[in-house]
Structure formats: structure tokens, C-alpha cells
Amino acid sequence: MAGHIVTITSGKGGVGKTTTTANIGTALAMQGRNVVLIDADIGLRNLDIVMGLENRIVYDLVDVVEGQCRVRQAMIRDKRFPNLSLIPAAQTRDKEAVSPDQMAELTRELAESHDFVLVDSPAGIEQGFRNAIAGATAVVVVTTPEVSAVRDADRIIGLVEAAELPPPRLILNRFRPDMVKRGDMMDVPDVEEILAIDLLGVVPEDQTIITSTNRGEVAVFDSHSPAGSAFKDIARRLQGETIAFPRYEAAQVGVMSRFLRALGFARV
Amino acid sequence: MNESQARLPRIVVRGTRDGLVIVLPERGTTRELVQALGQRIAGAEGFFRGAEIVLDYGTRTVIAEEIAVLRQVLDERGITLRTATATGFDSRSTLRTLGYSPLSAMPQPPVRGDESHHVPVMPRDELPTRYVRRTFRSGMSLHHPGHLTVLGDVNPGAELTAAGDIIVFGSIRGVVHAGVMGDMGAIIAALLMTPTQLRIGTIYGRPSEPNTDNRTDAAPLGEGPSIAHLDGGELIIVPWYGGRDIPPLH
Hints:
The structure holds two protein chains of two kinds.
Chain A: E1 4-9, H1 17-30, E2 35-39, H2 47-50, H3 61-65, H4 71-74, E3 76-77, E4 84-87, H5 100-113, E5 116-120, H6 127-133, E6 138-143, H7 147-162, E7 169-175, H8 177-181, H9 188-195, E8 199-204, H10 207-215, H11 226-238, H12 255-262
Parallel strand pairs in A: 1-5, 1-6, 2-4, 2-5, 6-7, 7-8
Antiparallel strand pairs in A: 3-4
Chain B: H1 2-6, E1 12-16, E2 19-23, H2 30-42, H3 45-48, E3 52-56, H4 64-76, E4 80-85, H5 89-97, E5 129-133, E6 141-144, E7 147-151, E8 159-162, E9 166-172, E10 175-178, E11 188-193, E12 197-200, E13 203-205, E14 226-231, E15 234-239
Parallel strand pairs in B: 2-3, 3-4, 5-7, 6-8, 7-9, 8-10, 9-11, 10-12
Antiparallel strand pairs in B: 1-2, 11-14, 12-13, 14-15
Helix pairs in contact in B: 2-4
């Protein structure tokens, strides 16, 4: 059976699509799956940097669709996992260099030999986005709990539905329980109510993401990173497992209630 | 570039008792419009040379910058812009501000706040009614020249317009305009009413801000079935419990 082709998209830029793709991809590989990542953001190549693979690029996505090289030649193997590879975007071309049909054909071909093909979509709703969803069998929409990001996510969900793809699932990224508690940020149910799609995961704001991204490492390697563990849960849910959603709460909890909670008493 | 040309908005030219009228499409960017207009004229240079025309904005929103650009396109081709006109009340008043005199061929929208003068073009009971089962997400819009019923939500960034009433079995969070042709007796009803903006006839209303904490889209306002109508020229939203709360027809 062919693998899943999962497109990770958002509408708004800067909400963490690339980081999400890198982390889910790595988590899936850690969990023993055969994974290939495709950076569909032609002209604004990033995924290779986040994965720490920039200096190994010889061929890219445009070379593949133009027949300049074989697919295998453009697939860069990950530093740690032989079952994880990346097809980087071209940096010197623009989005028109690839057509939706070519993307659909390439992803379908890769799905024959991989459990997961993850496509990192560019921001926006134009050709780059249309390329990214062209072959998708599932779509994941990433948003942050900001009104503007949620608005764009809503637009993207409408476009995915109009493209007659299965209903997308939602990742709420950079969630800050302390801000929710102060009433400064939308809570998970607020976002769910507007977007009305299934939640795939909530990723808490985590500074280790920035440091790991800059080093070309991914947060899922860090066993203490709350974001990393959220991404691991997401990877399991993508494989069809049912994983309970941890409840993210503000950190400033009293000693006593923390003690009680550790014993499983208090819910506050 | 052939592909983009195929998708240019359509510009219609009509000969009327007001002379040559160029009808602009509702959609399309200014750039597309300029391109389309250029092509339309290029097809018939002789026909248009020295002509005096009227630009009809129809339901398209009038923007001062856009009309200036279009005027330039016409000037360059030796065409005189006699005046510009539009259907919507706001577009017409914008045009007046810009020094144009909109044609009166269209039914004149009623004076703001004066509900008694308005007579609907067709009895309200006889307007066609459309039922839509879907959620309108950001960027989606629908216009219906009668009453409109939606089973689903109207999200922020989405827009519904109808000549008659609009009933939403779901949440209104976006922009909803009932009585868009000037019916001041139209109503808007929804199970949850937290709109970005509501409009009835020519009256605009947005929810009063209950507090300064306006950072989320989900403000606790109009929770529970609500109905919006005009009362003394003001748009009001009241809880809606059943038939006895439906405002009388004007």
C-alpha cells in the first residue's frame, strides 16, 4: 500500500510550518517510519537549514521535475536516520518552475517507497500553495493562537475543502498557557470553535525550538523539550494512534497544588 | 501570460439613453481592470475615439485611486469620462464626494435613518429564498437577490449579502448585509451573533465593544439566538426567543 502524502500549510507565514515539518518528519523516522520531506517553498528554501543539511545539497526539487537528475539523487539522507531524507527547494528559481501536476506525480512516486511524504508548503494561497497540496492525501494546517493567523488558517481550510481534499487537521503552535490565563491569548477551544476541524496537536511555546533550529537540530531529540514531546505525539496521531492531549497550564502553580497534582488529586 | 489574460474580468459596453456605458465587473484588482479596459478599447479604437462615456461601477466598490487610474486610461485614448455611477449607496456617495453625479436610473436608496419612505421593489413574502448548507470561511462570500438561509457559520473575513432577510443557523462572526438593495425592514437572525459588522439597508452597525480587551475573535456578545433589525434608524441586536420577537414588517 502506498504511503501517506501529508502537506503542512498555514496561509500566514512565520507560524512554524518548516519547524513543524522537520520535527514531525524526524519523529516519524524515530518511530521507525520511512520518511521523505519535500521543501515546496521554491525561492525561499529553509527546511534544509532547520534539518542541518544545507551543505549537502547538490540537486533540488526543480532539477527533479525538469529531469536534470533522478529523484534518488536529489534525496539528501538525514545525519542520524537512514530512513529519513529531504528533497530541498531550489533557491534560485521561482514557484512557476513546478506545476501542480508535476508535484502530484512526484509525491505519488515517492509514496510508493515511503510510509510518509511530508510536503512543507510556502505561505500564501497562490501557486506555491497549490503545488504543495496537489498530491496530498492529508493536509495539516498550522496556526498560532493569534487572530490574524487563525483568520488565514480559516481561509486555507476553505481552499483545501474547495480542492476536494479530505478535511485538514489542525496544529496549534506556540501556545502559551500563561497568556491564556491572563486573557491575552485565545485558548484552544476558542480556536477550535472558529476553525471547526479536528485537532492534531497543541505545541507549547518553547525556547529550545529557536536554539535547536539555529543549530540545525530538531526539538524532538531533546527529551526535555515540551515542544519536542508534543511533536512526537503528533507523529503518533498521524499514524492513527489515539494519544490524549496533555493539558497545558500556566507554570506559576503553588507548591501545595503541585504536590497534590503529582499525587493525582487536584485538577487546577 | 496567456493564462492570466483569459482570467481578466469582463468589461461590458452598453449603448443606453445615457450614451455609452462601460459596466465594470464586481471583482478583479485595479491592475486587471486597467488591463481589461485597455484591451476592450484596443478592440475598437475607432468606435471609442472622441466618445463620451459613463463608467458604471455597479456593485463594485468605488475607490478614489482606482477611478483616477481608469480616467487616465480613458484620457490617453481620447475618451471623455462624462460621469460615473454605481448601485450601492456608499459607492454613490463616494462618487458624489469625488465630484461625479451618479445616474438616477437605479432606484434611489432611501435617506439614511428614514425607514418609512422605503417601498420594497417586490413584496417581501414573494422574494426568492435560498438555502445554503455550508460554513463560510474567511475569503468566501455569497450574494442572493432574495432571502438567504445558511446552516453553518459565517466566519471572520467572510461576507453574506442578500436583498431580503438573512437567517444563519450557526454563528455570525463575519460581515452580513441584509436588505442590500435598500430594504430597511430586513432582519438578520443567528444562533450566535458576534459579527465583525452587520448592515441592514443603508445602516451599518458593529457590536459595541464591551471592554477594551478586544484581542480575540470570540468576544462574549450576542450569545444565544439573536435578531438584528433597525429601530428608529439604529441597528439593534436583541435576544430572539421565538415568533413573538420578530419585528413587524414596515
